[in-house]
Amino acid sequence: MSALFEPLALRGLTLKNRIVVSPMCQYSAVDGFANDWHLVHLGSRAVGGAGLLIQEATAVSPEGRITPEDLGIWKDEHIEFQKRINQFIEAHGSVPGVQLAHAGRKASTYTSWLGKGHGAVPEAEGGWQVVAPSAIAFSDSYPQPVALDAAGIKKVIADFRSATERSLAAGFKVIEIHAAHGYLLHEFLSPLSNQRTDTYGGSFENRIRLLLEVVAAVRQVLPADFPLFVRISATDWTEGGWTPDESVQLSTWLRDRGVDLVDCSTGGNVEKAQIPVGPGYQVEFAERIKREVSIATGAVGLITTPQQAEELVANGQADLVLLAREELRDPYFPLRAAHELGADVDWPVQYERAKPRR
Ligand SMILES: Cc1cc2nc3c(=O)[nH]c(=O)nc-3n(C[C@H](O)[C@H](O)[C@H](O)COP(=O)(O)O)c2cc1C
Known about the structure:
Blueprint: E1 8-10, E2 13-15, E3 19-21, H1 36-47, E4 52-59, H2 79-91, E5 95-101, E6 131-132, E7 146-147, H3 150-169, E8 174-179, H4 184-189, H5 204-207, H6 209-221, E9 228-233, H7 244-256, E10 261-265, H8 283-293, E11 296-300, H9 306-314, E12 320-323, H10 325-329, H11 333-341
Parallel strand pairs: 3-4, 3-12, 4-5, 5-8, 6-7, 8-9, 9-10, 10-11, 11-12
Antiparallel strand pairs: 1-2
Helix pairs in contact: 1-2, 3-6, 7-8
The structure holds flavin mononucleotide.
Pfam family, one: Oxidored_FMN
GO molecular function, one term: FMN binding
Cofactor: FMN
């Protein structure tokens, strides 16, 4: 029996296997609207057999976009096309999830491949004033943020709540709050980007406050049987930054506030952090949090082979395996993995004649 192809139940939802398409920005939206690209991109990965697809960082407000081309869910008009994508995903046996995001001080940047420029988009070219816990830019080429005031913080929380309501209307079945990669919620967690002196900065309890308030607002509008994930950067990989120990502690708070799974990534808040990148280099964080906190975890980062994915589930290091670039290389990774691991899974009926026989 393959552990990777064991179903996983999270509250009222059952995933058919442990393979997740990790959220990946496509920078292909106009005014936040999904279009045919997103349908085909996500749809083909549903056909490819992943148990869960987490749609790219989807902005809860226009100013929360990384680039002007990000997907968004800040207005009701965004719902209709998202609904169509999600119906397609579900019709093909997968589950649609969404990563709700605010890019904070890393917002208002150019999509690199458009050739319009690099770094900060000026306001004259459609950029906007970015916000952060403190007025500290990510780097010289990034926009200069203003520190959020109390009203601004309230708005962020309300935006996550409204985005959750729209996500429910659009038919998403998993919500992931993006608190990783140096975006707004991670910026509050890390003392390197959060130098506030009010109740949102300083102590550990103060730095995690905004994330906990967002979690509470989101959980409040979710049905009781609906799973909630949080993606964190388990370490800043930098002296004086957010630490693995803090991630363990935070995960306990998240668990006790109705979060079902911690998706363990790292980095993104410090431009020149030294990151020991290699196969499965972030698995240790998923493993430690799962063991020490008794919460489900997702492992991500340079997981590229069926055997590697199988072993980390079989060894109890993580409950879900998220693949990003390997799923771009091969949308049929799950079908291929099932064959290699000897799991008998259904192929799309249209492709049945191509299913390898043992
Ligand atoms: C094209 C691309 C876009 C990405 N966009 C997001 C995103 O929207 N949200 C996020 O949390 N991570 C994003 N990531 C990071 C991936 O989800 C993943 O954590 C990372 O690529 C490591 O996994 P991998 O080695 O399987 O690619 C992106 C990665 C890629 C390659």
